[in-house]
Amino acid sequence: MGASAGKVSERAARAIQKMAAAMHDTNSRLDDADVEALWKRYDHNRTGYLELEDLKALLRDLQDAIFSRPDIPPTERERALREFDADSASVLAEFERFDTDHDGKIQKEDFFAGIHTLYGM
Predict the structure, then answer these.
(1) Which residues does 82 contact at the CB level (< 8 Å), separation at least 6?
(2) What's the mean pLDDT in 30-52?
(3) Residues 58 and 35: beta-carbon distance below 8 Å
(4) Do 102 and 96 contact (CB within 8 A), yes or no?
């Protein structure tokens, strides 16, 4: 992995932590650089879109981040487990919400818009 790829991965990891924090703390926000880092991490094959498996990977990482945070109460962890089970129907619903043209792909602009909506950026 090159130096710039390592930086993207570190930034994406921090963005995942911010997303986890935002579920519990409304003062935690992602900025455009965070969302760009997420995009680069999960559009790993550089197709210019995310597929369902890419979104599942993001949600698995988010779920792991939520469970690793000691400041998230157990009730929030349980809710996150229900809502972000990467193999659940709710993931498909999230994918469909992001996939605004229903072509089975989340375009970059749709990803940014969806993250902005979900995390109040």
Answers:
(1) 88, 90
(2) 88
(3) no
(4) yes
